[in-house]
Amino acid sequence: MPVLADKKIDCLGLFCPMPIVKTRAALQHMAAGEILEVTSDDPGSEADMKSWSARTGNDLLEMERNGAVFRFFVRKTR
Predict the structure, then answer these.
(1) CA 8, CA 26: separation in Å to the nearest integer?
(2) Under CATH, what is the fold of the domain 7-75?
(3) Per residue in 18-42, pLDDT tens?
């Protein structure tokens, strides 16, 4: 079953650290348990999102890659 996002943000064309900065800002306006979908074409965003999720305790539920574009699904934990 596909993950359904409560909110989506587009970070295409943005480079480190902006996708993480925008992800953090978007999650601040979301309730615990809600899911954010982030689209990014920054080659470093995969490693950034993994380490940021681990550091903040938010759940990186799924990650997809289609060519140069990544889609991340992050669940806010608190």
Answers:
(1) 9
(2) Translation Initiation Factor IF3 (3.30.110)
(3) 999 999 999 999 999 999 999 999 9
How many beta carbons lie within 10 A of that of residue 10, not counting itself?
12
* Spatial distance between the Cα atoms of 41 and 59, rounded to a whole number of angstroms: 20
**Is the pTM higher than 0.90?**
yes
Q: Calculate Rg over the CA atoms of the chain.
A: 11
Q: Which of 9, 14, 16, 30 is catalytic?
A: 16
- Assign 14 a pLDDT band (cuts: 50, 70, 90): very high
Is 16 among the residues known to form the active site?
yes
